[in-house]
Amino acid sequence: MDDAAFIIGLMKTETDALGFIPAPAIRSRWIPYGRYIIQRDRRGRRRGYLLHGPAKPGRELYVNQVCIEYDHRLRGHAFFAIQALFNRAHDAGCTAINLRCAADLSANWFWLAVGFKLINVIPGGHRRNRNIAVYRMDLHLDGHQVPTPHKFQLPGVSKVA
Known about the structure:
Blueprint: H1 3-13, H2 15-18, H3 23-30, E1 36-40, E2 46-52, E3 60-68, H4 77-92, E4 96-102, H5 107-113, E5 117-123, E6 131-138
Parallel strand pairs: 3-4
Antiparallel strand pairs: 1-2, 2-3, 4-6, 5-6
């Protein structure tokens, strides 16, 4: 199974939480440009993904979607994906990283734990009738230190792998 097939398959299992991006869009807008990060376990098996927009100097980088297999959450996979994203954004000279997350998802605690600031809560779409939390992390290109997973202590996580 290639990365696109993995992303599309996992996205289908989490459609209620994430929404859905059509498979042709995944294959044409993210995969060919390397605008994704695959989260792997210690044995190298795919456990999640992060989709992001283009990383351009002087611009903001947008996270489009993040998902981890349900049984593999709270094991540090997302920390490493975010660290890789910070590195990409920093290396490209991006000014900030922005993302949106449904306010009713437990992932919101994670975004705060890794240093994102909640900047707004806006109404979501009519179909799901839920609020959307808007997060931002400003990247200070001079001396910005990328957070590392071992610096955070989260409930239920004793060791980050």
